[in-house]
Design goal:
Length: about 140
Amino acid sequence: MDFVLLAIPVIFLVASVCFANRAVQKGCKRKKALYMQIASFCVVFLVCFLCPIVAGAAETTEAAAQAAGSMGMGLIGAGIATGLSCIGGGIAVGYAAPAAIGATSEDPKNFGKSLIFVALGEGVALYGMLVSILILSKLG
């Protein structure tokens, strides 16, 4: 039963991607298809976010419900910290690495300097992972 409940959001998102792809092939504007994808992601996110909260509200004791809610919010916070820092690190490396390659191809002496800037972009992701580890250690 749990597998089916976990598969429903995935199936919905895959179906929305297929429908958007088909709509673009039939002549629909790409911008409209992108907005449809964002809207379907928001719907799935809200359903997945609100269903555990509703299920947790059925618990008999207030302390157990509050503990489950704080645990869930801590896990969401850890996931957001890791996800956003990795996205930011990826963007930073995406801009720094080609510039470093170009600088190194012009003058090989610039390799050490350019490598530092690429590593600084990767450091952002490591800091996000460190924050997530700290959050998870407080929950346990």
